[in-house]
Amino acid sequence: MSVVSPASRWVPTVAPAPSAPRTSARHETKERRSRRALAGAGALNVAALVFFVVTLFPVYWMVLTAFKPTGDIITPTPDFSPLHPTIAGFVDAIHKPFFWDYVSNTVIVSVATVAISLVVGVLAALALSRFRFKGRKTYLIVLLAIQAVPQTALVIPLFFTLQTLHQLNELLGLTGTYVIFDLPFTVWMLRGFVQSVPADIEDAAMVDGCSRLGAFRRALLPLIAPGMVATSIFAFIQAWNQYLFADVFMQLNTRYTLTVWLQSFETNRGTDYSGLMAGSVLYTLPVVLLFVLVQRKVVSGLASGAVKG
User: CA–CA separation, 275 vs 282, rounded Å?
Assistant: First the structure.
């Protein structure tokens, strides 16, 4: 009879108890995070939609009122859709006395302001970005200080200055006044675009035989051209929307700009709201169309300029 030793005796093995799966906890955590992200994105979308509606509603109301007859405008309960649309307000606005004179005055002053500010601003931005000289920081501080000065504080000094120079009721004097306030903004904007272009590009162009002016024209100017377009748009909008100086310095009916022309719809007999809103639409439309047409070119120009740089 054989004896089985205790060491060789078979002992059944017991499997360990299964632990709680961690995958389910991780999955719940991811779901909570995704729900929070969706809730945050939804809240941001709602806030953006509310902001969009609040911002767009005055424009919608202006366009809506422009197509309403006078009887439908002055009502106790507002109508959010034109019941009897008409273009009588636009016809009355266009046939106002000296309307086309006001259009030409506004276009001439705005375009001249942008052209002068752009030429002088590019040269000033190039000097501030590429050269080191005494008073450079002081000049930058003065640029910011000029932008902070309210226009109403300079009306009287500018009035007497233009009177001394015999430039009251002159488009040249009004253009110079606009340039005074548009130029600091233009210089500050263009300085940032010039600084974003490495100076090595101009140095390489001069090594290849270009002069300083040639390096600026062939190497730097194509890269900052999108920035010049964007800056010119903002400068044009500022000059186009200027009201105070045109109202004070232009005292002849034929020398008014469109911003001053809009107040002609308010008389002692009341306010022609239909004509006023129609005139506002006509006044706003060129700037909106210009911005829409140039926006794509600015974006594509910035992208191509970044690739070239």
Answer: 10
